């Protein structure tokens, strides 16, 4: 019979509470088990002593009889100093997938094209401003003020009469 040390879920919805049990590997998660050797309450703070309770002697007994712990239970056993857990190495864990890399490249290309267009527009505006002489600009300002002044005088005359 293949034995496993695993978590059996209890508690209500969104309020989990787990029992650490030794069970036949073929039995359901929350089903029949051979022995309860501890408990785990994930709602408690990580530094709380009540978060993980484990009977170390019984855990050693079942490990000697061939029980295979799940990853989470193996972490508890390692923290309790009962069984050494091998460190895992997954160097590609934080890397985005191929599609995400493609989308990032497309965004970078669009951003670069937008920046190039803005730079060209700025350069064109600078060239236009450089080609326009100050006298032409002064003439335009003078014409604009001359057009506004007679209109303002005419409005004042109507108000007086």
TrEMBL record:
Its domain of life reads Bacteria
Record field: compositional bias (Basic and acidic residues): 82-115
Residue intervals passing through the bilayer: none
The entry's protein name is Small ribosomal subunit protein bS16
Q: Name one Pfam family in it.
A: Ribosomal_S16
Output the HAMAP family linked to this UniProt entry.
Ribosomal_bS16 (MF_00385)
Please provide, in alphabetical order, the Gene Ontology terms of the cellular component aspect for this entry: ribosome
InterPro entries the record matches: Ribosomal_bS16 (IPR000307), Ribosomal_bS16_dom_sf (IPR023803)
Q: Where is the composition biased (Low complexity)?
A: 116-133, 141-153
Coiled-coil blocks: none
Region: Disordered, residue numbers? 82-161
Xref: Gene3D superfamilies: 3.30.1320.10
In the record, the note on similarity to other proteins reads: Belongs to the bacterial ribosomal protein bS16 family.
Query: Which key words tag this protein in UniProt?
Result: Ribonucleoprotein, Ribosomal protein
């Amino acid at each position: 019979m293949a034995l496993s040390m695993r978590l059996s879920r209890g508690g209500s919805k969104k309020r989990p509470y787990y029992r650490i049990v030794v069970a036949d590997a073929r039995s359901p998660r929350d089903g029949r088990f051979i022995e309860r050797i501890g408990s785990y309450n994930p709602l408690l703070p990580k530094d709380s002593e009540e978060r993980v309770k484990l009977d170390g002697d019984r855990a050693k007994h079942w490990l000697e009889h061939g029980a295979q712990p799940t990853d989470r239970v193996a972490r508890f056993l390692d923290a309790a100093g009962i069984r050494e857990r091998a460190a895992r190495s997954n160097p590609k864990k934080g890397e985005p997938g191929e599609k995400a890399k493609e989308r990032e490249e497309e965004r970078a290309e669009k951003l670069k094209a937008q920046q190039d267009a803005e730079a060209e527009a700025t350069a064109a505006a600078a060239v236009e401003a450089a080609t326009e002489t100050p006298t032409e600009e002064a003439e335009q300002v003078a014409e604009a003020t001359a057009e506004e002044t007679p209109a303002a005088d005419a409005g004042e005359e109507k108000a007086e009469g």
